[in-house]
Design goal:
Elements: H1 15-25, H2 37-51, E1 55-59, H3 77-83, E2 91-96, E3 108-115, H4 120-126, H5 137-141, E4 145-148, H6 152-160, E5 165-168, H7 179-192, E6 197-200, H8 202-210, H9 214-237, H10 244-256, E7 262-263, E8 268-271, E9 292-296, E10 299-300, E11 309-313, H11 320-339, H12 355-364, E12 406-409, E13 412-415, E14 420-423, E15 426-430, E16 435-437, H13 446-454
Length: about 450
């Protein structure tokens, strides 16, 4: 890539370029689908209502926070959840209205998105951007006010005169890789407002993100559908002699050509012994006749993750032992799937009627290992998790399921001694009276899998 080298002379303004910027800016990120701007506004209003006694501050990522020189820009998840803004170097300030009485609901007085002003020289390299000075910035962002990032400090100090408490991210989201960013932003706030009390916003956002909005579910469906197509393509391509990385690359191509921006997680394509390694993502082995292949691969659509796993016989047909283990895992998955509904607990082995316990009991009472022992000891992970902007989306796992949650159902058996690992993972929408299998188009039974594999490319 060319370096951003500029001489001391300012390039003369190119009127044609400015016109192009104006026209293109009206169609920013056409391929990226956002929820309706009103949804983000409603979330911000809810956050202010729930916190009430302080201002809310969140920072978006900068380019360097996501190594943007080598990967597509990813926004901080909680920042995106409240703003829908997917450009770097932004800040958000929410200010409650001073309540007239204790029993009065807290309303939002101000909502300000701070973004950089135009840098037209830079935009020749990066493409058109929305600038803080653009007259239509409030309309296009859904914020009542859009201001330059240079004004953030003064606006914050003004708000703190009425509310000397700041709600922000005091703890990093697990598995997000944002530990350094979160610590840096807290340090920044302490320097900008040394007398302010800081409170953690994350518990509020975790509760909100647990239940998905209809527009979030629509985006999740698109990502799941694209990822299902990737798995269908892989089923036609897996055979002895194929390399794991070839299947991973094929699947990435298939879901990205259907609109996904990036992998929801590093693709896991593990054959033979590596089918028993849960997060094996080296994908460096050549598939052998007699192997099973665990493919845990999915893409993210407009930022919303998918998570799907299938286990295939490299030869196209399961051996009797492979079929036995596969059907036990499938039986456990179906047992849990039948039980999914609001009010049920997803996790907790030993907890009566939790989905985890239902799946474990099924596995532990069906089949034996080579030494005649029950198979429960080979189910070594949780049954499922929440899916959303993160593949392991925040959720309150000590609380029962609610309608609108999107979770995975993914039992597995991993027997290293037999070089035999089986995991079947599907995405499930919790409905008012049960569950909807979002990935139902993808073959699950032995017969369906073998039939799909017989249709070789």
């Amino acid at each position: 890539m060319m370096r951003h080298l500029f001489g001391r002379r300012l390039a003369s303004q190119n009127m044609g370029f400015l016109v192009a910027v104006t026209l293109a800016a009206a169609q920013l990120a056409a391929a990226w689908e956002r929820e309706p701007l009103s949804v983000y506004h409603e979330r911000r209003a809810r956050v202010v209502s729930e916190t009430g006694d302080g201002v809310v501050v969140l920072f978006g990522y900068n380019d360097e926070d996501v190594a943007a020189s080598v990967t597509t820009f990813h926004q901080n998840e909680n920042f995106y959840y409240l703003t829908g803004w997917n450009e770097p170097t932004a800040m958000m300030l929410l200010v409650p209205r001073v309540a007239k009485g204790r029993d009065q609901p807290v309303e939002m007085e101000k909502e300000i998105l701070f973004i950089p002003p135009h840098d037209y020289r830079q935009e020749k390299w990066t493409g058109p951007k929305l600038g803080a000075e653009d007259a239509d910035a409030p309309e296009r962002t859904g914020f009542r006010a859009v201001k330059s990032t240079s004004l953030f400090h003064s606006e914050l100090l003004e708000a703190l005169k009425s509310f000397p408490k700041i709600y922000t991210e005091l703890t990093p989201q697990p598995e997000s890789g944002e530990d350094a960013f979160q610590a840096e932003m807290v340090s920044k706030l302490r320097k900008l407002a040394p007398l302010a009390q800081l409170a953690d916003l994350r518990p509020h956002l975790t509760r909100m993100r647990t239940v998905k909005s209809p527009s979030e579910i629509a985006l999740i469906r698109k990502g799941a559908d694209a990822s299902v197509e990737a798995h269908l393509a892989a089923m036609k391509a897996v055979r002895p002699g194929v390399w794991e990385y070839q299947i991973a690359a094929l699947m990435k191509y298939e879901y990205e050509r259907r609109g996904c921006e990036w992998p929801s997680y590093p693709p896991i394509v593990g054959s033979g012994f590596y089918s028993t390694v849960l997060h094996y993502d080296a994908d460096t082995q050549q598939m052998q006749d007699g192997d099973v292949v665990v493919m845990d691969v999915a893409g993210s659509y407009s930022g919303y993750a998918s998570d799907i796993t299938r286990t295939l016989p490299a030869s196209g047909h399961f051996t009797p032992r492979q079929r036995e283990i596969y059907e036990i895992v499938l039986g456990a998955q179906n047992a849990a799937l039948t039980a999914i509904k609001p009010g049920v607990m997803i996790g907790g082995r030993g907890k009566l009627a939790s989905l985890q316990q239902i799946a474990f009991e099924y596995i532990n009472t069906h089949g034996k290992d080579l030494h005649g022992k029950p198979l429960g000891q080979y189910f070594i992970h949780g049954l499922g998790h929440s899916v959303g902007l993160n593949v392991h989306d925040p959720a309150e796992y000590d609380q029962p399921l609610q309608a609108g949650m999107v979770i995975t159902d993914e039992p597995g058996i991993y027997i290293p001694e037999e070089k035999l690992g089986v995991r079947i993972e599907d995405m499930v929408l919790v409905t008012q009276d049960g569950a909807e299998l979002l990935t139902r188009r993808l073959p699950r039974t032995v017969e369906e899998v073998e039939k799909a594999m017989s249709q070789k490319q």
